[in-house]
Design goal:
About 20% of the residues lie in helices and about 30% in strands. It is α+β, with helices and mostly antiparallel strands and about 100 residues long. A four-stranded mixed sheet has the order 1-2-4-3.
């Protein structure tokens, strides 16, 4: 029912990432997009904030991408609802910006 979701510097604070990502997937329309930004390993920004409960690398989101081997071999067994497309880039050497399309 939703076309776009923005999660900018939110997901690194989430304890149970898979259920949250599955819920975001559920509420997105087919073709809908999840825009997200998170601090990325090994940047200081990823580790210095005491409220961060998880860390991301450039490979983390591939567990949520249907066509990637990490989803096919592992993520699917975790109960992850896969997205059809993943586009990502590192900004300023410390921030991962990604778009996951349902």
């Amino acid at each position: 029912s939703i076309s776009e979701i923005y999660c900018h510097h939110f997901l690194e604070h989430v304890t149970n990432l898979i259920p949250v990502m599955n819920e975001l997937h559920r509420v997105l329309k087919t073709g809908g997009r999840l825009y997200m930004k998170v601090p990325i390993y090994p940047s200081v920004q990823a580790f210095q904030d005491p409220t961060h409960v998880r860390f991301f690398t450039q490979n983390t989101l591939t567990y949520f991408h249907r066509n990637h081997s990490l989803w096919q071999e592992v993520g699917s067994t975790y109960g992850i609802k896969p997205f059809e497309r993943l586009t990502q880039a590192v900004n300023n050497g410390w921030e991962l910006a990604a778009i996951l399309t349902k």
